[in-house]
Structure to design on (96 residues):
């Protein structure tokens, strides 16, 4: 079973399991008195997690392409420093 193939199922399951575990732990052993109700905290935490996930899925591909463009433009990277045939650079790039 390849975990990356099932990431979209496994990731939310782990998130929900950890959320339930931590909420139960918070209920049984609170470290301080809370200012807001439990429902308000749960809703705000879940909404922050959803927004964070959405923003990361939008931004990371753009950042990766931008970083690659800057690296090529400035001559950064291993394959910019050594001269290899294009076919060998491609194979080494896929393997590395």
């Amino acid at each position: 079973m390849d975990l990356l193939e099932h990431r979209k199922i496994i990731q939310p399951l782990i998130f929900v399991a950890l959320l339930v575990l931590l909420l139960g732990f918070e209920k049984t052993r609170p470290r301080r008195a809370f200012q807001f109700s439990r429902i308000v905290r749960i809703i705000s935490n879940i909404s922050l997690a959803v927004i964070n996930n959405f923003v990361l899925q939008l931004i990371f591909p753009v950042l990766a392409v931008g970083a690659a463009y800057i690296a090529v433009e400035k001559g950064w990277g291993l394959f910019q420093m050594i001269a290899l045939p294009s076919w060998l650079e491609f194979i080494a790039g896929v393997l590395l």
Remarks:
- The CA atoms of residues 26 and 33 lie 11 Å apart.
- The mean pLDDT is 86.
